[in-house]
């Protein structure tokens, strides 16, 4: 929904200027999200008297891995800026600089999109469990601290 809510010109520009790093971010983020959805599906299955919680640690680790996508996007942006300024030779019109600079931003967009998309599976599991417990009349379970 977020992608379709973006202005059409922005979305079209992004799709026309996808770089190899953007593809790495998008494909990696898609695979990570698919893995999280599978683990999340397992985490939402009922096991005896409560939900199957054996996958919670893996779901947490996968969600933490998604935090790398904005950093990869930033790396792509910095590389694009360096490429832009490295290609300028002599006096250059501001319009040309902006035209050369614009593709550097696609990596930021890809990183932010994948970070946003990869928040959803963990959120669905947490909200889904609470909703199912509430509808079933079961007490809410507090999250335990596993660091001790």
Topology:
Blueprint: H1 2-5, H2 8-16, H3 20-43, E1 46-47, E2 50-51, H4 56-65, H5 68-87, H6 94-101, H7 105-117, H8 120-136
Helix pairs in contact: 3-4, 3-5, 3-7, 3-8, 5-7
Number of domains: 1
Gross geometry = elongated
Low-pLDDT parts are none
Structural class: mainly alpha
Gap from first CA to last CA: 40 Å
Cα Rg: 21 Å
**Discrete helix count:** 8
Q: Helical percent range?
A: over 70%
Q: Can you write the helix and strand succession as a string?
A: HHHEEHHHHH
Biggest β-sheet, characterized?
Answer: 2 strands, antiparallel
Strand content: under 5%
Q: Strands of the largest sheet, in order across it? A: 1-2
Number of distinct beta strands: 2
Mean pLDDT, as a whole number?
Answer: 87
Explained architecture:
This protein has 148 residues and is mainly α. The protein has one domain (22-45, 52-131). 71% of the residues lie in helices and 3% in strands. The chain contains 8 helices and 2 strands, in the order αααββααααα. The chain has helices spanning 2-5, 8-16, 20-43, 56-65, 68-87, 94-101, 105-117, 120-136; strands at 46-47, 50-51. Strands 1-2 form a two-stranded antiparallel ribbon. Strand 1 (46-47) and strand 2 form a beta hairpin. Helix 3 (20-43) packs antiparallel against helix 4 and helix 3 packs antiparallel against helix 5 (68-87). It is elongated and about 70 Å long.
What's this, in brief?
The chain has one domain. Helix content is about 70%, strand content about 5%.
